[in-house]
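hiii, so i know i said id send this last week but things got crazy w the move. better late than never?? heres the sequnce for the chain we talked about at the cafe, plus the structure i predicted for it. fair warning i was half asleep when i ran it
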Amino acid sequence: MIQKMSHATIYVLDQDQAKDFYVGKLGFEVKVDQSLPNGFRWLTIAPKGQADLEIILMKVGSGGDFVKMKGGSAEKGGSAEKNGAGDVETIAALLKKGWFGPGAFRTADCRKTLEELKAKGVEFVSEPKDQFYGVEAVFKDPFGNWFSLTQPKNY
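okay and structure toks below
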């Protein structure tokens, strides 16, 4: 029986830039940052104090290499060096257009957190707004991924 999800993936175009944003601006901590001999980089982060879920910062196009490393086979490669280059370009273009919203982050005070993050250069696409589930603002990372910053009701 499955008990929990341990990892979730956010696709990025540059892992160093992603690490700087998620750690330097959002205040997350690095859990693992390991480059393997084949060039694949396993980079995971998490909000400080959240031990039960790691976020994988996966470079677009490296997923096929990861699947092969684990003994599987990925159709059409999956890395820019292979014949999946067109797929990588398509995903990168959609990412830049803001077509992916990987999730929501919880905060105890949405308005205060927004001000703190704005001061660090985080771009918000919506200001805090009262919703039926709490107070929500939306921000995006440097690649176009957008996230809900939510203060749940009764938090």
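btw Confidence is low (pLDDT under 50) at residues 77-81. thought thatd interest u
miss u guys!!
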